[in-house]
Amino acid sequence: MANPTPVKPRLADELDIVIPTIRNLDFLEMWRPYFQPYHLIIVQDGDPSKVIKVPEGFDYELYNRNDINRILGPKASCISFKDSACRCFGYMVSKKKYIFTIDDDCFVAKDPSGKEINALAQHIQNLLTPSTPFFFNTLYDPYREGADFVRGYPFSLREGAPTAISHGLWLNIPDYDAPTQLVKPLERNTRYVDAVLTIPKGTLFPMCGMNLGFNRELIGAAMYFGLMGDGQPIGRYDDMWAGWCCKVICDHLGLGVKTGLPYIWHSKASNPFVNLKKEYKGIFWQEEIIPFFQSATLPKDCTTVQKCYIELSKQVKEKLGPVDPYFIKLSEAMVTWIEAWDELNPPAGSASKPQEVANGAPTKPK
Amino acid sequence: MANPTPVKPRLADELDIVIPTIRNLDFLEMWRPYFQPYHLIIVQDGDPSKVIKVPEGFDYELYNRNDINRILGPKASCISFKDSACRCFGYMVSKKKYIFTIDDDCFVAKDPSGKEINALAQHIQNLLTPSTPFFFNTLYDPYREGADFVRGYPFSLREGAPTAISHGLWLNIPDYDAPTQLVKPLERNTRYVDAVLTIPKGTLFPMCGMNLGFNRELIGAAMYFGLMGDGQPIGRYDDMWAGWCCKVICDHLGLGVKTGLPYIWHSKASNPFVNLKKEYKGIFWQEEIIPFFQSATLPKDCTTVQKCYIELSKQVKEKLGPVDPYFIKLSEAMVTWIEAWDELNPPAGSASKPQEVANGAPTKPK
């Protein structure tokens, strides 16, 4: 079963790179050989009057807060401000099948042989090959060159499941929470684990948005990074929130989530004191959020990501609302997000339907 | 949380090495620096009149079929003959806390730097540090040097769970089933994945008995390798059967199962034609066995491994009996195994109880 699908080295017509930023994008210079064939969607956070410089030769569109407000109108309230959670606006305006999102302090890593890692190519490889969420394969990704399913792996499960998410890792600065940063300020991740694996069905994981690929058609509408930053009681839980929601929905819809390769080089630890301030409510709340997501189930009639997400928003309101009023607001923002998503991404062929229905006069064939 | 427990390099008083074999144990020469401090339990399969040579200097006890029959009497029927499943007799007669079992065609592997891998030391490390079955850590084993729990990992789960099983892997000849062996006769596993990870709660995996460590006190009574080989319709599913039973019980009791490091060097592929004959019913049956184990639940009053295993044997009889009469026989052998286990491993302080009860005259303090 190894390598059933030949992987295209470039997928420029089908993938957008989404980058949230508040500064000039000098980091792109190092990524030039890998990213230049792709279209970039830059989501500028903070002061919209600031000019963000993008190195020459890149094909991009850039949205600042004024653009977001103009495009979404009142629904712009669901997009966070002064937090990298704003990146999910980029997922919404993309028209491509796949998204790769990366932080602007992440650089090209090297594998143990000293060779530069093409992170994007690995994400594409991960997304184009199936996942194995229903049974664990001890030799990791069975679709990889030189690997396969081991003895005892049911043959009926060897076709796997479509892959919705490819979660990449980080060399150098690991993605630790503020307390761990404070306790281990010098810890660096130097271990290159040469594996990609599927996170089994029914298991939650902490999804980091620093180096993340996903299939927008399969899961994009659930890749909402929540309400963080300016005016909110919490930060640094945007990707976690998206990961928990997405995993529950992927499990329900029979989609796969992979983690492992590729690595990027994470250059700089963010300030642990600032992080602690952003995180502390999340550290407390996650003790209730995780059990909530672990026991969340979706009814059978939730057959689309949108339906799943709306249902999940109701459960968030009901079950997490009592934890803090923030979750009521978040559950409402989840609904707004779906409304905005559907407005910008009308189902194929349905673009003019709402108007027709409103007029009560569907167009007849002549 | 990394390395909460300093690992003892040797644990000779607490660990036995169990080796099933039909031949002279020349392979031990390569393992001498690693195994010589330990006691070996050799389970001789096949013709008991054959003399198995063990290299000088090893401390061992050897059991052949005559010994097994003598020690277990009629209950010897639960121990397979002419199949490496016979190894589980060694688990039963050991008095140690930990077991490491290895096949006699497995040699010392080297890590990517060319250094010999001390497989036993890694198993001990795995068994002495906790597992993380309730939430996935994307940087793999958080208790390892240089690693920790990542952002978003609930703090309440960072103590982990006691580790019951350490499943090691194989370089060179991968553990493939006969069909895969036939299709890919030249495939070799050359990928050294530098990771140990916990198989999440609720997820089954194919446990291979080639390179396996476990905590006998925590899970030994469920480490039964079933009825295989001589007189049975199936072979090469001994370790799989044990793995599925153990995983369901570990999940129920809150114990952890790890897989990954250490690697051994698996020298020689077994004959795929012979394997196909042994496996073909298993390949067919596992399509029903896996869903059975995936949906198996144990009642709350199953608080010991023995109680769990007896309950599981009943469910095997009821749910898998209709698949083939073999499973009726197997379910009865599971009960016999537990009876034999308890006979050889009476609960502490209860050794003389049965006799006292039989006499109706408990000893009174004078």
TrEMBL record, chains A, B:
Record's protein name: UDP-arabinopyranose mutase
Its UniProt entry gives the catalysed reaction(s) as: UDP-beta-L-arabinofuranose = UDP-beta-L-arabinopyranose
Give a Gene Ontology cellular component term annotated to this protein.
Answer: Golgi apparatus
**UniProt function note:** Probable UDP-L-arabinose mutase involved in the biosynthesis of cell wall non-cellulosic polysaccharides.
Q: Which UniProt keywords apply?
A: Cell wall biogenesis/degradation, Glycoprotein, Golgi apparatus, Isomerase
Q: What does the similarity note say?
A: Belongs to the RGP family.
Cross-referenced Pfam families = RGP
Q: A GO BP term, please?
A: cell wall organization
Signal peptide location:
none
